[in-house]
């Protein structure tokens, strides 16, 4: 019988939100983060070390998908660097590298 513990899971999920601006997308991301934490807590209190960090980017006219993904990724990395378990909007953080 195999027993183990997941120590780290890193995943990138891209959720397009057409018709939403960056602030609205940030509110949605924050709701997802909070819901995730509440569901984990309901399963087991010791799971509170599992967190969600999210970066929100916004498509700018004339830019392609690559630029959008890079913007959101920079914001996510900034969220992790500045405390984890938070949502960072690219246009509100100092996430330039």
For the structure shown, list the relevant keywords.
single chain, 97 residues, mainly alpha, two-stranded parallel sheet, 2 helices, 6% strand, elongated, disordered N terminus
Description of the structure:
The protein is mainly α and 97 residues long. It is 40% helix and 6% strand. It contains two helices and two strands; from the N terminus they run αβαβ. A two-stranded parallel ribbon has the order 1-2. The longest helix has 22 residues, at 22-43. It is elongated. The chain starts with 21 loop residues before the first helix and ends in an 8-residue tail after the last strand.
Tell me the number of strands.
2
Instruction: Specify Rg, calculated over alpha carbons.
Output: 15 Å
For the record, give the distance between the C-alpha atoms at the N and C termini, rounded to a whole number.
46 Å
Query: Helix amount, in percent?
Result: 40-55%
Mass-distribution shape: elongated
Assembly classification: single chain
Instruction: Please list the strands of the largest sheet in the order they lie side by side.
Output: 1-2
What's the story with the biggest beta sheet? 2 strands, parallel
* Regions with little confidence, pLDDT below 50 for 5+ residues: 1-8
Order of helices and strands: HEHE
Average residue pLDDT = 81
Given the helix and strand composition, which structural class is it? Answer: mainly alpha
The helix tally amounts to: 2
Strand content bin = 5-15%
Short précis:
The chain is 40% helix and 6% strand.
Q: Which helices and strands occur, and which strands form pairs?
A:
Layout (H helix, E strand, L loop, with lengths): L21 H22 L10 E3 L8 H17 L5 E3 L8
Parallel strand pairs: 1-2
């Amino acid at each position: 019988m195999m027993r183990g513990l997941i120590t780290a899971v890193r995943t990138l999920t891209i959720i397009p939100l057409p018709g939403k601006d960056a602030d609205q997308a940030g509110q949605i991301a924050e709701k997802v983060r909070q819901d995730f934490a509440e569901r984990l807590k309901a399963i087991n209190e010791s799971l509170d070390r599992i967190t969600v960090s999210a970066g929100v980017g916004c498509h700018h006219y004339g830019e392609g998908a690559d630029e959008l993904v890079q913007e959101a990724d920079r914001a996510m990395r900034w969220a992790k660097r500045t405390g984890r378990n938070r949502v960072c909007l690219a246009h509100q953080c100092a996430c330039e590298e």
